[in-house]
DNA sequence: GCTTCTTTAGAACAAGCGTTCGATGGTACG
DNA sequence: CGTACCATCGAACGCTTGTTCTAAAGAAGC
């Protein structure tokens, strides 16, 4: 059911999104995907031409089609591998802690850390969507995205129960994802923060609020 | 310095982003901008063709050029008018209250309400950017966007002082904007919420946190 | 050296792009 | 009726798009 030239394995646990089954042409495919991801991330999917990708990857225009089926397949492969890696990475990170609040912090740290390591891939996953594809491939990505969201929702459900949180879980999950995907917009404060510090800030802001638990006066 | 066919007035206080100086061709320009905004919002700027806009607006392809200079001018006009209207609307909303916390709620309510009334315009403002324009027009929009952000930052500064909030202002502002621009991503909970309720939820989540001020235990 | 398979890329393709031109019908006014 | 201006649009322009075709260089085995 894979659409690529090379059948892709689930890449169990591998952190890099551009790592798949061992194949003679796999390494260059990864170079290609990495170049495509950065270009998609900066110019947007529609704003990126295959010639742009050819230039950025160092592969000739027609050479690209030896490694991939076409433009939309590139996008799909990037998104698919990224969400797979994100899910696997989160699962591994969560296996080390049990307390709901700790799991939440762990989830945030994992997401921020992964976004910091592979910014283009995560940005393409969360901001781009293929216009042409009538495909079921888009639905496949959407399905896995929901799976990833559900991981967070389940954590939030447990946190919510523990602290009798008044905010609906799914709404809170969306807001937390918005925060974590936030940069590159609006004020764009020079967030060259350490991953750990940034994660902690987001976690604290999300859990305790801007006032930090003080001023808990609710009208 | 205006780039449109018709010189645009600052539209002082008018809530609709597509309302400018009185001109014989103003009304159709507004129709055009509204159509362009919705199309840009759904397909993205690069993914939208002038023929798409012609089809969606009911104006012929060449007819569009009677009302605007070209594609990038359409984007600029949409963004410029929207940020102008947003600033004016916020200023008016804030004039009714003085307490920092109240002003914050007022700002959030105003932004959410405006986004609810003109979703396409706000989305184009916050998510799209012209690739072609070497222009200073983009910088002009960016300048006004910063002006709008500064309004929020100043409010947050006062709130921060009052409650000794531990989170940096600019960082918090970015996070709040991310929350307010959040929908249409990730889990996408069916947020057909009432504007007032949604604003309140975001305000509470931002100020008091997910746990609502409970569990203010900070390691 | 010959054959076979993999990898590369230049050239060309039809389709779509943003934009311009020239012409046309419609009012308004003398 | 005639003239001037406003609004509109079909047709065409040159260029870029995603994709394919065809050929050739390199590696491997005999």
Molecular structure report:
- The structure is a homodimer of 219-residue chains.
- With 219 residues, chain A is mainly alpha-helical.
- Chain A has nine helices and no strands.
- The N and C termini of chain A lie far apart (55 Å).
- The interface between A and B is large, with 56 and 57 residues.
- Chain A binds a DNA duplex (30 and 30 nucleotides) through α3.
Compact summary:
2 copies of one chain form a homodimer. With 219 residues, chain A is mostly helical.
Q: Indicate the radius of gyration of chain A in whole angstroms.
A: 19 Å
**Could you describe the largest sheet of chain A, including whether it forms a barrel?**
none
Biggest interface: chains and residue counts? Answer: A-B, 56 and 57 residues
Task: Quickly count the helices of chain A.
Answer: 9
Low-confidence runs of at least 5 consecutive residues of chain A: 1-14
The count of DSSP E runs of length 2 or more, i.e. the number of strands of chain A, is 0
Distance between the termini of chain A: 55 Å
Envelope shape of chain A: elongated
Structural class, from helix and strand content of chain A?
mainly alpha
Oligomer: homodimer
Mean pLDDT of chain A equals 85
How helix-rich are the residues of chain A, as a percent range?
55-70%
Q: Tell me what portion of residues of chain A adopts beta-strand conformation.
A: under 5%
Q: Note the run of SSEs of chain A as H and E.
A: HHHHHHHHH
């Amino acid at each position: 059911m894979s659409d690529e030239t090379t059948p892709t394995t689930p890449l169990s646990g591998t952190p890099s999104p551009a790592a798949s089954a061992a194949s003679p042409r796999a390494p260059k495919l990864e170079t290609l995907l990495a170049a495509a991801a950065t270009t998609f991330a900066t110019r947007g999917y529609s704003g990126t031409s295959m010639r742009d990708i050819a230039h950025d990857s160092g592969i000739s225009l027609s050479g690209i089609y030896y490694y991939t089926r076409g433009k939309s397949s590139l996008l799909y492969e990037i998104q698919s591998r990224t969400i797979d890696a994100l899910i696997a990475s989160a699962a591994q990170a969560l296996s080390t802690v049990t307390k709901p609040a700790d799991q939440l912090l762990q989830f945030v740290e994992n997401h921020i850390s992964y976004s910091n390591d592979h910014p283009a891939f995560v940005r393409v996953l969360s901001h781009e969507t293929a216009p042409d594809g009538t495909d079921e491939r888009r639905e496949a990505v959407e399905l896995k995205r929901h799976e990833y969201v559900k991981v967070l929702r389940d954590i939030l459900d447990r946190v919510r129960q523990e602290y009798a949180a008044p905010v609906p879980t799914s709404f809170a999950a969306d807001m937390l994802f918005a925060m974590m995907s936030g940069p590159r917009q609006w004020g764009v404060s020079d967030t060259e923060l350490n991953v750990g510090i940034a994660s902690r800030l987001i976690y604290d802001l999300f859990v305790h609020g801007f006032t930090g638990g003080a001023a808990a006066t609710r009208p």
